[in-house]
Amino acid sequence: PNPSPSPCPNPSLGRTIRGWGLGLGLGLGLGWGCQSLALADEAVASPLTPVDRCAQRSTATGMQIKCERHGLRQGQRLFGCDAGEACVSTSAVKSPSKFASPWQVPEGKTAGIFDALVAEAKKAGVDVAVADGSDAERQYMWGTVRGGGGATDDVEFLVVPKEGLVFYRSCTRITEYVYPFQQPINDQGEANRKRMEGIRTKLNLEKATDDTYDKSAAAAMGMSSMPYI
Q1: Which alpha helices (H) appear in the chain, and where do they start and end?
Q2: What is the distance between the alpha carbons of residues 216 and 151, in angstroms, rounded to a whole number?
Q3: Strand 165-172 with 103-104, pairing
Q4: What is the pLDDT along the chain (229 residues), one digit of tens a residue?
Q5: What are phi and psi of 187, to 5 degrees?
Q6: 7: cis peptide before it, omega within 30°?
Q7: Secondary structure of 106-118 as H, E, C letters
């Protein structure tokens, strides 16, 4: 009889693949076997894979938007800040009032700066979920901390040793709007900025620029061409 496609169960992928394969039996006869196919969409996500999800709901007094964003965009850049978020970020170039300067690491001290950042974040109450310092090109930390009003804040650091710079982001997930006003009811990120400034001060790091994103000043430092901002 003509052979027919046979199911090829692959327990590691949890799905069945149907395919043709030609195998040689012990009795030198021809038999039909299974081809094992690796499926890229089943790969386990890296801890650095960006998470970007938002949900909106109506409240008794207005509207609430909850966003969870962390990880590296394009594998090398932190998220910025939306206009209404209580947030501060070295990548907030589209929301200049929420921009913060990267920190300059003194020459010769880049080797231990990542571990020092993680330690200070923990002292500041951050529950560190990811601390990946294994890559010589980039070292990334993400964690959460209880912010004002009981909301969750995401806290991130990205250390780029070859540039001698620390990039960071601290953002409150929940933004409240009260009708009929269209302005968010929050401090626009001042508590987040204060948290990060406290960590910077403890580590005696200097700002690479001031906290105003100016394209000409950034270009003079070579910052505008950096893929990390």
Answers
A1: 110-123, 190-203, 215-221
A2: 37
A3: antiparallel
A4: 444 333 333 333 232 222 323 232 333 233 333 333 232 333 335 767 899 999 999 988 888 899 999 999 988 899 999 888 999 999 998 888 899 999 999 988 889 999 999 999 999 999 999 999 999 899 999 999 998 778 899 999 999 999 999 999 999 999 888 888 677 777 677 899 999 999 999 999 999 876 655 554 454 444 555 555 6
A5: -90, 10
A6: no
A7: CCCCHHHHHHHHH
Tokens in use for 138? 């980039």
210 three-state secondary structure: coil
Segments making up each domain of the chain, as ranges: 6-42, 51-221
| The dihedral formed by the CA atoms of 157, 158, 162 and 164, expressed in degrees to the nearest 10 | -30
Is the pTM higher than 0.85? The answer reads no
Q: Where are the beta strands (DSSP E) in the chain?
A: 6-10, 15-19, 22-24, 30-32, 51-58, 62-70, 87-89, 103-104, 127-132, 139-146, 152-160, 165-172, 174-178, 206-207
